[in-house]
Amino acid sequence: MTDICSLSLTALCHALQTKQVSAEEAAQACLTRIEATEPAVDALLLVDAQAALAHARELDAAGPDPAQPLWGVPVTVKDALCTRGMVTTAASRILEGFTPFYDAFAVRRLREAGAIILGKANMDEFAMGSGTENSAYKKTRNPWDSTKTPGGSSGGSAASVAAGQCFASLGTDTGGSIRQPASFCGCVGLKPTYGRVSRYGLIAYGSSLDQIGPLTRTVEDCARMLAVIAGHDARDNTSAPCPVEDYPAALAALSGDRPLQGLKLGLPREFFGQGLAQEVRDVCEAAIQQAASLGAEIVEVSLPHTDAAIATYYIIAMAEASSNLARFDGVRYGRRAPDVKNLEELYVLSRSQGFGQEVKRRIMLGAYVLSSGYYDAYYRKAAQVRRIIRDEYLSALQQCDLLCAPVSPVTAWPLGSHSTDPLEAYLMDAYTLSLNLAGLPGLSLPVGLGADSRMPVGLQLMGPAFGEARLLAVAHALECALPALGSPAL
Amino acid sequence: MADNTSLGPEAVAHMAALSRLVVNREEEALFARQFADILGYMDVLSKVDTSHTEPLFSPVLHEGITREDTAHNRRSHEQVLGNAPDADGQYFIVPRIV
């Protein structure tokens, strides 16, 4: 048997179901890999080796179950998702030691499918950041170059997948937090349509933007993960009551020499303008050329209000964050400040001691844009521009089947680059966040290494609501035609 | 849009109070500068004509689904109080209010 950790999730599933590999061997291989690579990447906040091995042995005793699509597959989960009996902090001091007594819907689905949860992945505190440097506990490093960021906020998830510590990870994407780290670490990352995956048990940041999705090493792996976590859940009122497609089967729909024949790919011209690094442009254009040679027709489209999307997004995200994070008050769970004189002081000091600086910044700005005298000028205005941006996406998708653009204007930046200027960091999310405003699905596909940085570049495919099957099928066809990125040398 | 150039320490203290947070002197000065930059940048929205546009607060496409308003007893006291910083087995304990 080759190195277990170098297999794709799909290949591992086959090996497990045919008993070429036992669940315990798979879990042990991942735990050994975690031990070897964690000093370099620091991707995980918690590893529960004992529970993982116990679960694996239980599975082995019962034998492979074809009805469980992830039977024996070791995975990690972003620390924003509640895991029963496993500490869940959202990388914040205010939730230090918090142990949920229930699983998030997506986590429960993973367990029911037979997956083994190895541990919790690092992230920016409450998912507020694009580099996993805002974690209160540790800074995760990029497996391709440990002096660089893995991206964020699901940077721990992306790094753990790229480093071969697990076969898939669950992340969350509020403004690009799955797609951008997937791009920076050379993984596949999917932000599903808003409502496709239940947010029950997700520690909320921006409730009208947040969506849970998989990070994997291949598109097929991603399709398998989405098939497990997608579906309606009555406990999340925004969860969509529409049927789940057979995503792994959908990949076979596009085959032959010209699998993309008849497909129209739209390039939003605003995503290829100033600010896009030449090495990212070159790699993306080569991949688009490849799509054309597979039969796709390439057309130019326009999303005219792209320049207003960053301001729109941050006003809405901060407003929702200030409301969502009001629940952390030191009373029912989480950190409580010691030696307080009264209830008001308990709230204020618990929050002030428990939240990091970026979280405070966003809560305060959020409270401001919602406050009397400013609500119309900021929050309501942003909600109006949001409709314009959403309508422009829908109109662009009338002119083509899928949109195609870089995930990020640059490859992974050196750690600490944006630590003193938050606005500079916000501007880096320009190509990802408008999709969350529109609530549409987007997939980041690794398409090559930048010529200068030798770091991974991701191409973003974006589609209509609940169009994940086609998104995955097109990404799969392109992935098969492009040279493999390889793995980071760790 | 508001006049952001005048964002001073008092405005930051007001924002902190709205947020049930306290900030120290150092943070107050830092945030005043950063907030002026960020809110100044948000001004880009004032150039967008929204006079005939309804706000979009959520991208949800389906109608809200209602369910019977019935109480369920799914969680035990032990579970609910398990993460409390201070509890007595029945209630959360907080500093005296009245």
Protein described:
Chain A has 490 residues and is of the alpha/beta class. Chain A has an eleven-stranded mixed beta sheet, with helices on both faces. Chain A has 16 helices and eleven strands. In chain A, helix 7 packs antiparallel against helix 16 (468-481) and helix 10 crosses helix 13 (376-399). Chain A is globular and about 70 Å long. Chain A has helices at residues 9-17, 23-41, 49-62, 105-112, 155-162, 179-185, 219-229, 247-250, 278-293, 306-324, 343-354, 357-370, 376-399, 422-427, 433-438, 468-481; strands at 44-47, 74-78, 116-121, 168-173, 188-191, 211-216, 264-268, 297-301, 402-406, 442-449, 456-462. Chain A has a domain at 4-255 and 442-481: Alpha-Beta Complex (Amidase signature (AS) enzymes), CATH 3.90.1300.10. Chain B is mainly α and 98 residues long. Chain B has a domain at 4-47: Histone, subunit A (Orthogonal Bundle). Chain B is built from three helices and no strands. In chain B, helix 1 packs across helix 2. The longest helix of chain B is centred in the middle third of the chain and has 18 residues, at 25-42. In chain B, 16% of the residues are buried. The mean pLDDT of chain B is 90. Classes of the chains: A alpha/beta (490), B mainly alpha (98). Chains A and B meet through helix 10, helix 11, helix 12, helix 13 and helix 14 of A and helix 1 and helix 2 of B.
